[in-house]
Design a protein that fits this description.
This protein has 493 residues and is of the alpha+beta class. The protein has helices at residues 2-13, 27-31, 39-60, 148-215, 221-255, 271-286, 298-317, 349-358, 377-442, 448-482, and strands spanning 21-25, 65-73, 90-100, 105-120, 123-140, 262-266, 323-336, 338-339, 344-346, 362-371. The chain starts with a helix and ends in an 11-residue tail after the last helix.
Length: 493
Amino acid sequence: MKLAYFLCLLSFFSFHALGNETLSISEKSLLGLSLETSPQWESIEAAFLASKSEAMQLKDRFRPEVFAQGKYAENRERPIIQFIPIWSPIKTAQVGVRQAFRGGVSLSAAVGTDQRSAMSAAGTFRDVTTTVARLDLQVDLWRDLLGRLSKAQIDSASLNQERADLEKEINRKAFAVSLRRTYWSLVANNEQIKIYDELKKTAQDQLKDSNQRLLAGVSDKGEVARYEAQVASRKGSALYYRYQHEILVKQLKMLLPELKDKEIILSNYDVSSMIKNVLGCTEIIASQRNIPFDFTRYDEITELIRKTQKEQMKLASSYDEVDLKFLATLKSTGLGSNSNPAGKNVGSYGASIDDMANNNRTGYSAGLELVIPVGKGDTKQTQELLAQKKFDYQLSHNDALIGNTHNQLVKIIRILSDVVIAQKENSEALERRLIVQNRKFKEARLNVNDLIQDQDAFLNSSLTTINTQLEILNTLFDYLVVFTETPCEFNRI
């Protein structure tokens, strides 16, 4: 009764699949689908773009900028002293360009005007205009001397971007491995379903035979009940593996959302060829006495981490350094304000520029600016410790990942291969025994419980062999996630 209820429930939850387009998949066809639609790939791409954006923002600091501003002001104030004018309206504007260089130098050039009018006891002023052209220079003489820190910041960001490029390529291949891993899990699941379907059919035939034997008076109800229980058990196990199938299909659709409306079925596959390619790949790996750095790109990432750590330590150690800057300004000022016969002072933009051009109005200033940080020592030490610990962890993690993955794979594969050989020998022996036991049962020399025990032993052996083969495959996939450039046929698909 419970089994029937479960079957109805399963049918209810799977009704939406009816009418969906059926898609037959193979390992190659999965890898041919667009990875860019996957949420996992979007995450990989986002991490890459974050590093790229950081590097670009730092480089943008050393690109020229054009700036401009304008202002208009009016007021109706009353002067404290009647001879002092209240300027209104006042119109100001400025336009210029500035550029920071990587050598600790920044330069800016600007032209600004100030035009104002006023009335007072001292006289009338209309459009009195001042125009200033100026050039400002700033040179870092200590903290960023010759661009020491600027270069460290840019180099660190560039190294991070280069590392992100490598990690993106590694993650692309790791994503492909995830697809292949899921695909072969589906194949293993399909083989398990086949075994249970075959055994379920055998159990149903045996139940039918047992009922006939009961009618003939050569068996009892206990034997029939035992076969009925076996049929129910086989059905339940087959349903469980179909449930596992749906879980794996869900995983696949999570990796590739474009499959969400498809009914997935497996196309023809060749397990024997796959095993042959796997063994060929493990032989190539086993032939490498030392860690095959040519097979991986993690060693390149490790080198980039070391370089990045060096640059970050420079930045951290300079946090509380004295900053000394040289500041210089060169400017020329022109004033447009001329008295007319009516006693008014009248100016214009053109008059201020003419004054600047026709008369030497150039001036300059130069000086030093000293900044001495106070109380930043603890922060500096924390930043240095952070840079040390963070990158040391990444370095040790990469070294352990590369070394352990290679050194342990050969041992694990050898053990699992021996296990598969032993399991196959066991399955062959159990299959021969099962033939003999079936003959004895038909000759009434063996009871039903002993026969079913032998059938279960053969079943468990076959399932264990499939699981071990899948374990070997997953172990190799774990290796290929790290050693992405392994030159074997299995890794070229």
